[in-house]
Amino acid sequence: MEYRYEEYDVAVVGAGHAGCEAALACARLGLETILFTISVESIALMPCNPNIGGSSKGHLVREIDALGGEMGKNIDKTFIQSKMLNASKGPAVHSLRAQADKQDYTREMRKTLENTEHLTVKQAEIVDIVAENGKVTGVKSFTGGIYPCKAAVLATGTYLNARCLCGEAITYTGPNGLKAATGLTQSLQKLGIELVRFKTGTPARMDGRTIDYSKMEEQFGDEKIVPFSFTSDPESLQKEQVSCWLTYTNEETHKVIRDNLDRSPIYAGVIEGTGPRYCPSIEDKVVRFADKNRHQVFIEPEGLYTNEVYIGGMSSSLPEDVQIRMYRTVPGLEHAKIVRNAYAIEYDCIPATQLKSSLEFKAVEGLFSGGQFNGSSGYEEAAAQGLVAGINAAMKILDRDPLILKRSDAYIGVLIDDLVTKDVHEPYRMMTSRAEYRLLLRQDNADLRLTKIGHEIGLIDEDRYQKLLEKERAIKEEIRRVENVNLGANEHVQAFLQENGSPALKTGVNLADLIRRPELNYQITAALDPERPDLPYDVTQQVEIQIKYDGYIKRQLQQVEKAWKMEEKKLPADINYSQISGLRIEARQKLEKIKPASIGQASRIAGVTPADISVLLIYLTQMKNHETVKR
Amino acid sequence: MIHSDTIAAVSTGMTSAGISMIRISGDQAFVIADQIFRGPGKAVAEMPSHTINYGFIYDGDRMVDEVLLSVMRAPATYTREDIVEINCHGGIAVTKEVLRVVLERGARLAEPGEFTKRAFLNGRIDLSQAEAVMDLIQSGSRAAMDASLRQLRGSLKERIQTDKDAILQTIAMIEAALDDPEHYDTGQEFRREIRKSVSAVYTDLKNLADTFENGRVIREGIRAVIVGKPNAGKSSIMNVLLGENRAIVTDIAGTTRDTLEESLKMDGLMLNIIDTAGIRETEDAIEQIGMERALSAVEEADLVIYVIDGSVPLDQNDHVIMDRIRGKKTICLINKTDLPTAVDVENIHHLLSSPVLCVSAKEHQGMEAFSEEVKKMFEAGKLQAGEETFLTNLRHYEEICSAVSSLTLAMDSLEKGMPEDFISIDLTDAYHALANVVGEDVGDDLIDRIFSTFCVGK
After folding, report:
1. CATH code for B155-214+391-434?
2. CATH second-level architecture of B7-118?
3. pTM score > 0.80 for this model?
4. CA within 20 to 30 Å of B333's CA: A99, A423, B168, B282, which one?
5. Helix, strand or coil for residue A597?
6. Beta bridge partners of B263
7. Of B138, B154, B302, B305, whose CA–CA distance to B235 is shortest?
8. B75: which chain A residues are within 8 Å (Cβ-Cβ)?
9. What pLDDT, on the 0 to 100 scale, is given for residue B150?
10. How far apart are CA A235 and CA A537, in angstroms?
11. Residues of B in contact with A567 (CB under 8 A)
12. Nearest by CB: B425 against A89, A555, A613
């Protein structure tokens, strides 16, 4: 029987990484928020890999943190190993990754949710989005409760009409055997929302006692742990860490896979969903990289209080009997026992081109969505979108401007712009190469880029904001000071240079010039800088990077400026593309569907060519001239 | 798009010969034609699209000319508007008369390039082609437009496309390695490969930019430069090749102090041969100028003919020359085989990795082998006749210069051992500069220029 439950400002459907961020953001902004989950035990569940961060994903986590999200803080509380990846490369690609204790991660997030004011956690399956005149008015649960709300955020992850496949064995469940959500799809279709089917997968979990680690390479965490959250004190995070292990597949592994491909649901055509190219199953890797005779296998602990380990790099949907044979060909896994089988999961999600950059549906006012439901892949991508969707649901209710991050502001900006602009045919994974301005979007400066925005929104408190301003000031001051430390070509300086393998000076220079030399840096040059103040590491790190890479940073800023001109040319929402005769038909259809906000966005749509863009530009100018004449 | 008026113009040159064509384009094209055309068949508005119709042009009741009238219905036309083309019987007076009649019925005389302008505004042609039209409008000459259009379609576009693709390939390599360190190694080999590819594009673009600076026009023939130490016999070789005593030949080293240029035909191939001053260390200022010219001639050469005096051992000057001609298509001639040989032919061949021939200019020996070798190189596609592409457009030149300086920065970063992702910043700039040339990147400046030239929307 239907009945009316009490009213909320925001209803969030799903309590995974996107849902948690969305709910927390809304509640912290003072809005009454209800968070629905099919199972309270599965809040912030990590149903796949037991780590947070990694290449470019680590950037997302730091950005989430700078905007006032939770993921960074939660992993800082629950990590069991931490590593800065690509430390030998340029600062733009340094990326933090931490192994999580999965149970602990879930527990800590649940604790945070349960202790947040204005936030209600509710175990219920939402089967209907109630809308009137194209505007959300509430959500309805399977048990008949109607929850009136002003805005709703969909974060259903991989649960919508989910089915899991392990060879011929198919179950109609979400990850980990959890109940799938089956009612909502139809309701969304009724609202005119298009759904597609995506696929992803996860490898087996094994009993760590049955693994022979002596045949693998041990992978240690960093000696000096860098926290994810800018609020965490690095000193307090230093602790004993667990190791991961590296091994490889071999020709024998690949033979087992090839011999049984006909029993893989993907290759047998049982799976219709599109899988991720960048996080492929081992079957995909063997087929697609036929010339590679081995692939990395990364063994990661699932937590401190379990023997289960995650077999990274070997996700699969092959049947159980094949899986066992396949895994046991890998050095160290010869006698391994599988605790949980690898499986593929198929689920309903949307082409996110139906969303505005604010993550609100174009067709349904007040309805927002984030996470894997939007066609992305990964916890971090989900959390980032959840945070933005939550913030924008709140902004909508509070009648404030939506948060739209530019591609030059944050990886989050790139992520969302790509999702709402491009035809995504497979789960979208964040990658360093997707960010064209990555030298500006470093993980080390996420706070400098975004804390102000977080503060404006209301998720960063005054204390943290003031600290940021102070840091900014200290960086600027130190750079100015260093640039004014003049050094003559005297004996002392030349001796120092010789000692450090740097060419001798011919004329006087300032200290910044020396720091720019490849073989020198801020730290080393302290010997030439008696006046140097004692500054915290996060300040000197910025001083070093900003001085050393000054030229590159400036050139990248110029690129941003150039591109920004096109972003500033706004396309009115009511533009009738079919009336613009110069456009090619494909471009017309794509523009009509996506309704880009600017020329810049239009130029990123596949199927819109430079010629179409010039037609649009001319059309805009003509319109403008036309209006001027009318006035 | 918004065009209320219909335009008309004589599309062939105003000459007294043959047939002239008057083109009418716009909403009213058929209406106007119907008022002045009388034929045996249907009214113009009823004629099937893309047909040619026989009839007469009338001014009221007075017959002006017997014509063929082409009818093309929008949008499958050059301007994407309705077009009528009247082919009349030439002669300035008749042509003017037909045009006057057309204009009197409501068409407006088209501005130079206006048909093309409409083609662009209606999305019929792309930005790069439109730019060629701008050149026309600005220069007022049809020849300029033809040249400009031709090069955008032809060799220049192809060459820039190739360079642009090579840059993209390099960027892709870097990006792939960033995202998939498991499968891509970024070691020394990787960096060497990047350096190789970047410097190849750099060299090509630099050469292309130079064609603008030097104002070099298309030249028929292979530009061959004779270089060597003083008194190696360069001028003698040239004379033998030309079959006449054109250059001054003496035994005093340093006689040829400037470069001399002559053309000759060799087995059907055109060779522009440039004799240069000998290259050696010297204090003589005038001689130094000659040498500078010699070296810059080498830079521009399609073929270098390196003459060595075989009767004296190689010295420092020879090594300087070899350094300068490395990478150029070269044929080495060891001259003076009439005297005892003092050089190691095998070694020279090894040093240059080019064909080495022994000749005697004095006794006219070995020259057939030389012309055989030139022919062989040409047929193998190693030599190209003349400079095929050249820059005439200032904007293209500026974009290419900016690409060159971005590539310089990228090579500098490689040199300094900067991580790969820094290199891709400058490569990206170079890529966009080239994309701008071929009209694939819609640069704001270009749009602005087109707006100002075309008076769009006024």
Report:
1. 1.20.120.430
2. 2-Layer Sandwich (3.30)
3. no
4. B282
5. coil
6. B272
7. B305
8. 581
9. 53
10. 12
11. none
12. A555
